[in-house]
């Protein structure tokens, strides 16, 4: 019997918590060069992140530029931000399509890079569902760390309307990582913890745009918990380059039309992701990790 069949979705065959393996063996050149290169770039990146934490995050405009620089240093060489139904997007059209302050982007969650990719585009407030039916906000570094954790995001929750009105006044968009924990990017975990009532009852209706993130090679995903230093090392040691595609829906979900099902469907459609069963949630991930540790 397959080892982790319990954690594989019955309908689609997707096992969302298994780490992504390289499809090709590393070339001789990358075996020789990548590790020494990682030894050099790893401490530099640690310094870059500290500089962001201590200084650059506080400087408007410079902070997004600086995150783009960090992404390049992480070898994320190309980010394809595309909008559903739009082919070649001019700079002007791009401005029109871009989410406005207070808008909510709901996205899948694959890796610590996700948060950096969104925040490098425009000022962003990150939000995670809490287990008690509220929503908790996070800065970019906290949101990135959450991708390496197997626990629910722990912070005091608020309701989504008050988060949205604050975001609007601060000029940030909201990126809500609806799954709450990272998967390997092959499907969308259940959105059990997202309290949709708060979206339906929001005083001023929220514009909710679906989005989905995908990486090439897929090994950038972090379905297993890891330390941030360990992840950074793995990222640098394993590939010469990474690419990211972010697809965003052009039609927002609004008001009563927002249900867990409509959110799930919209994200899966925009990202061509498989919709996974209800049993594959945060608790299932924790069980999986226990089994994974024992059986390996
Ligand atoms: C960017 O993504 C869009 C939509 O997925 C795709 O049509 C386009 O070819 C991609 N562009 C590049 C340069 O990969
Ligand atoms: C969802 O939020 C509403 C309003 O804050 C609250 O009354 C309700 O208990 C929450 N639902 C769940 C399932 O926690
Ligand atoms: C670095 O990657 C290579 C494969 O390219 C692997 O054999 C090696 O064990 C990795 N080193 C560390 C320290 O993770």
TrEMBL record:
Keywords: Acyltransferase, Lipid metabolism, Membrane, Transferase, Transmembrane, Transmembrane helix. The keyword Nucleotide-binding does not apply. It comes from the Eukaryota. The chain crosses the membrane at residues 32-59. One of its GO terms (molecular function) is acyltransferase activity. One of its GO terms (biological process) is lipid metabolic process. This is Lysophosphatidic acid:oleoyl-CoA acyltransferase. It comes from Wickerhamiella sorbophila.
């Amino acid at each position: 019997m397959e080892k982790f069949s319990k954690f594989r979705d019955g309908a689609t065959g997707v096992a969302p918590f298994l780490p992504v393996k390289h499809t090709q063996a590393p070339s001789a050149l990358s075996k020789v060069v990548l590790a020494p290169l990682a030894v050099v770039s790893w401490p530099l990146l640690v310094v870059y992140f500290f500089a962001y934490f201590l200084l650059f995050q506080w400087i408007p405009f410079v902070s997004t530029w600086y995150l783009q620089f960090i992404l390049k240093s992480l070898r994320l060489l190309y980010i394809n931000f595309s909008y559903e139904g739009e082919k070649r997007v001019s700079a002007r059209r791009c401005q029109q399509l871009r989410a406005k302050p207070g808008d909510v982007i709901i996205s899948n969650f694959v890796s610590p890079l996700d948060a950096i990719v969104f925040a490098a585009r425009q000022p962003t407030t990150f939000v995670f569902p809490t287990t008690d039916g509220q929503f908790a906000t996070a800065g970019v570094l906290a949101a990135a760390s959450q991708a390496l954790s197997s626990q629910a995001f722990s912070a005091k929750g608020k309701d989504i309307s008050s988060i949205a009105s604050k975001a609007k006044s601060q000029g940030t968009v909201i990126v809500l990582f609806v799954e709450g924990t990272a998967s390997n990017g092959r499907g969308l975990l259940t959105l059990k913890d997202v309290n949709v009532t708060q979206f339906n009852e929001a005083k001023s209706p929220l514009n909710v745009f679906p989005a989905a993130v995908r990486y090439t090679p897929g090994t950038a995903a972090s379905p297993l918990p890891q330390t941030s230093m360990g992840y950074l090392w793995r990222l640098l040691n394993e590939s010469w380059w990474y690419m990211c595609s972010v697809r965003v829906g052009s039609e927002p979900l609004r008001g009563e039309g927002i249900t867990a099902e409509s959110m799930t469907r919209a994200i899966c459609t925009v990202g061509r992701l498989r919709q996974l069963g209800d049993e594959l949630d945060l608790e299932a991930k924790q069980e999986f990790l226990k089994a994974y540790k024992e059986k390996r």
